[in-house]
Amino acid sequence: MIPRTATLTLQRLARGFPIIAVTGPRQSGKTTLAKAVFADKTYVSLENPDEYEFAERDPRAFLHRFGSGAILDEVQRCPQLLSWLQGLVDERGRMGDFILTGSSQFDLLSGITQSLAGRVGRVELLPLCASELVAVGQLPDTLEDMLLRGTYPALYDRELLPGDWFANYVATYLERDVRQLIAVRDLSLFQRFVRMCAARSGQLLNLAALGADCGISAVTAREWLSVLEASYLVVRLPPYHRNFGKRLVKSSKLYFLDVGLMAWLLGIRDAASIQTHAARGALFETYVVSECIKQRFNAGQSADLYFWRDSAGHEVDLLFETPQGMQAVEIKSGSTFAPDWPDAILKWQKFSADASLPPVIVYGGEGGYERQGCRVMGWRELQGLVV
User: Fold this and answer.
1) What is the pLDDT of residues 261-305, one digit of tens each?
2) CA-CA distances (angstroms) from residue 176 to 26, 50, 83, 349?
3) Segments in the chain forming alpha helices (H)
4) Residue 87 in contact with residue 113, Cβ under 8 Å?
5) How many CB atoms lie within 10 A of CB 151?
6) Cβ atoms of 372 and 281 closer than 8 Å
7) Which residues contact 373 (CB under 8 A, 6 or more apart)?
8) CATH architecture group of domain 6-124
9) Which of 306, 374, 304 minimizes the C-alpha distance to 340?
10) 284 with 364: CB under 8 angstroms?
């Protein structure tokens, strides 16, 4: 197992909450991490038919087997357990008693909100982050390899080609999760929708246009997008509009949470083609944004990342608040600094009341330095950018 940054967060939360919930996409390492951090606890998967039937038939007896607590995997499959957990952990008064994992955040979070409010510490575990790969010497040698491979643990724990793994991952996701969350009659149409979302990663989200391109209504597009969000495949980045008098864009931007999956959905099958691919900029932007989200999630924080864009097309790719003020980040896939890169971010700085920190430019090259009033950092130096 590659050591995970979220380990310290799990240990911290387990000292203050009786229940810990670990959510995230399928195959992101939730179960592996829970077993490693809470090795003394019994592990039970509710995808096991016998365990599921027992939990459904007699939830009280099911839970009372675990005098020292337990790791309950895919607990969203049996939501009535959460009500019984409330009484049990209140009676015991023990911190870090039960660990819940799940790959569908809507189902699990709705149960937590209704039954376990105030009793749950939550960690959202996405695939590996760059710092975790650096720590074990497995960060890909080139940016193109990184964008092709992505960061799912299986691609670093085993000898797998990205194309082989993602093909099976998508097929399994469509067959299992989509059928559980919504009634999709035509899975091939939904798969087309997923690919069209990948083609729009890093762009402003227009549900009507997205639906029209897929032959579905905007209402259906919104419903299907919520499924991708619930499964931690995509995220919407909201616009930042505080303290600005100018007319601003109010639509969110869409991003995939794993750049390797995005590349596979775009039909990219080798790293060399990424160098000249039309989506290279979007792939790199998706990689940087997803890395920033992972850093926040691993620390037990919400993402709280934004972008800024006015009606004239001036845009800052990332904004986030820090104790020292608002941090602006521009993302450029080129490997050599260009003099016009800081233009948009410096323009934002001039009329923003929140601009108090030197802007950051993340680029597709290597090395860090300062240029034109900006802090420039290469794709390998992202660790600690937002935390």
Assistant:
1) 999 999 999 999 999 999 999 999 999 999 999 999 999 999 999
2) 11, 19, 26, 47
3) 6-14, 30-37, 49-57, 59-64, 80-92, 105-115, 130-135, 143-149, 154-157, 162-173, 179-181, 187-199, 207-214, 218-230, 259-265, 280-298, 343-350
4) no
5) 26
6) no
7) 342, 346, 358, 359
8) 3-Layer(aba) Sandwich (3.40)
9) 374
10) yes
Contact 343, 294 (CB under 8 A): no
User: Which residues lie across from 282 on neighbouring strands?
Assistant: none
Nearest Cα to Cα of residue 99 among 159, 181, 49, 30: 30
Is residue 365 within 8 A of residue 345, CB to CB? The reply is no
CATH of 130-283, one of 1.20.58.100, 1.10.10.10, 1.10.357.10, 1.10.150.120: 1.10.10.10
**Annotated domain spans of the chain:** 6-124, 130-283, 309-381
pTM recorded for the entire structure: 0.93
| Contact by Cβ (8 Å): 116, 85 | yes
Rounded Cα distance between 59 and 81, Å, is 6
Helices and strands counted in the chain (H then E): 17, 14
Q: What is the pLDDT of residues 98-109, one digit of tens each?
A: 999 987 665 566
